[in-house]
Amino acid sequence: MVAYYFNDDSINTAVKYTEDAGEFQDLITWDQLSDLARDALVKTDWDETLFNVARVKMPMKDGVFVEKLNGAYPF
């Protein structure tokens, strides 16, 4: 299982492996989201949040996803 993790000390979020029992969430694709949901995710300025002192880009936002994917590809 993978669990969502929040660290109060560093105000950081992440996912990590866990042995704890939990729920399964259905995987959905971008196309399965409503127009309203897609629009909200694209138009929100995730990169300008109060806690983004490291200037990290939102990895799933249009234009950033392919850049991150190419950077992670080992070949």
From TrEMBL:
Origin: domain of life: Eukaryota
Compartmental location: Secreted
Keywords linked to the UniProt accession: Secreted, Virulence
The keyword Secreted is annotated on this UniProt entry: yes
An example Gene Ontology CC term for this record: extracellular region
InterPro entries per the UniProt record, alphabetical: NPP1
Pfam families: NPP1 (PF05630)
Main location: secreted
Protein's UniProt keywords contain Metal-binding: no
TM helices/strands, residue ranges: none
Similarity section: Belongs to the Necrosis inducing protein (NPP1) family.
Protein name per Swiss-Prot or TrEMBL: Necrosis inducing protein (NPP1)
Species per Swiss-Prot/TrEMBL record: Phytophthora infestans (Potato late blight agent)
